[in-house]
Specification:
Elements lengths: L4 E6 L8 E6 L9 E9 L2 H7 L18 E9 L13 E4 L9 H4 L24 E4 L5 E3 L7 H4 L8 H7 L10 E5 L3 H13 L4 E6 L2 H9 L4 E4 L6 H8 L5 E6 L4 H10 E9 L11 H6 L3 E4 L5 H12 L7 E5 L3 H10 L5 E5 L1
Parallel strand pairs: 8-9, 8-11, 9-10, 11-12, 12-13, 14-15
Antiparallel strand pairs: 1-2, 3-4, 3-6, 3-15, 4-5, 5-7
Helix pairs in contact: 4-5
The structure holds nicotinamide-adenine-dinucleotide (NAD) and zinc ion (2 copies).
The site of nicotinamide-adenine-dinucleotide has 33 residues, from helix 1, helix 5 and helix 8.
Amino acid sequence: MVEKSIRAARILEYGKPLSLVSVPKPRICRDEEVIVRVGAVGLCHSDLHLLNGEWKSIIPLDLPKTPGHEIAGWVEEIGKSVPTNLLTPGDLVAIFGGWGCGICFYCKQGNEQMCESAKWPGLSSYDGGFAEYILVPSFRFLVKVQDTSILPEKIAPLTDAGLTPYRAIKKVRHHLGPGKSIGIIGVGGLGSYGVQYAKLFGAGSKVVALDRSDKKLELAQRCGADHVINLSSGESIKEKIMNITSNKGMDVILDTVGAESTITDAIRMIGKGGTIVLVGLMGNMGKIPVAPFVINEVKMFGSLWGNFNELKEVIDLQVQGKIISNIRNFKLDYINEAIEMLKNGTIVGRGVIVP
Ligand code: NAD
Ligand code: ZN
Ligand code: ZN
């Protein structure tokens, strides 16, 4: 049989541009597997961390590897045991990225993204989505999108940029309501959805978006932010926050940057009994001023990606038109240009690669 080949953008060496190469088209080897024709893949800042080699000790990969973990497309081929009442070739699907073992404690909790031996696409032994086709190890990781009028480029970013802030804000929504406030630090891929969830689940809370780019803050306003603050303006952030919150400080802060400076800013802005949720991974360490942290009973925790059911909920919000995906498309040939733009902060919203 002649082996068919497909195009893929691969990491050959850390710190170098991706290489556009031909690789064999994936083939079904196990009965549960599904091959998806990639319709769109979001370009996540995590891809930059990975490409730069920042994560090579925590996520060791055998190179070459095809990255890309925010994927949507159409079912191309299914293995023998895939229930055809669930999936058939031609279906529009979102690929859930937490490819868990299904039997460990975290998988049994429903949090397969936290699996003890998680195999994330493009971040494990499996290749990711910066290619024309991808092999998905089980039909269990696919969400069928019933509304086929939605383009895959609007679905792909939901699998991470739309999912991660959703899970994070769901964890703190009971702290929100009239007279309360929530700050979203970083209005990039994740933050642009974060602002929308803050409005949706904030139940009347004031939503404050913070970034160092005015263009991103304009996007935050379009996403419904009540106030925007440029963190690089040199003005006193604390004073601004105190004015907005009637001297209480913020009730909730979602930090989608996770740099040392934003963690310091978050602790400066948080009010008594406030909660900081950290999802950004830009920094290595954060400093916590012990006395104010203790005296103000500040809570702080991390949040990882989202689970399968949460992805279904996020897709449902998109189908209902309750959230908007702010995207900019790039052809696969221009993936390295898109990566440069993400690095320079010139993509407003989510960059999406369309093979
Ligand atoms: P992005 O590049 O699309 O957006 C980052 C935004 O933060 C930009 O608007 C940028 O202007 C702003 N920013 C950067 N540094 C800043 C600073 N010091 N002060 C103020 N604003 C600043 O990135 P993204 O794809 O949204 O990802 C954000 C982070 O979240 C990355 O570190 C990524 O690895 C991480 N991430 C975490 C999870 C998780 O499960 N916890 C999931 C996806 C991504
Ligand atoms: Zn990601
Ligand atoms: Zn598991």
